[in-house]
Amino acid sequence: xxxxxxxxxxxxxxxxxxxxxxxxxxxxxxxxxxxxxxxxxxxxxxxxxxxxxxxxxxxxxxxxxxxxxxxxxxxxxxxxxxxxxxxxxxxxxxxxxxxxxxxxxxxxxxxxxxxxxxxxxxx
Length: 123
Known about the structure:
By secondary structure, the protein is an alpha+beta fold. It contains three helices and eight strands; from the N terminus they run H-E-E-H-E-E-E-H-E-E-E. The chain has a single domain (26-121), classed as Pdz3 Domain.
């Protein structure tokens, strides 16, 4: 079995392990799936992304449990960063976002909205 890891990611992880003995990550406790957006939706909302993360499920008692998120919301950004895939969402939820209020940019029922969440430290 073989896999690759970007060198800058490996350096970051090794550095954190040496300094802290662990790598801290933020998480929201939501489950989603990457979907491609149709051009009409992109144009209508003036989106600068071609895909997003459709919110499917929330972890009971997870950090986002009491937020305003609803099943079927389409996440297209977090703060000032675009979110085009579930991997993008994982990347931006680094240790600096632990217990820091964040704004998710979503499309819900054909309206753009913002939802506040406070990510917790991943157990």
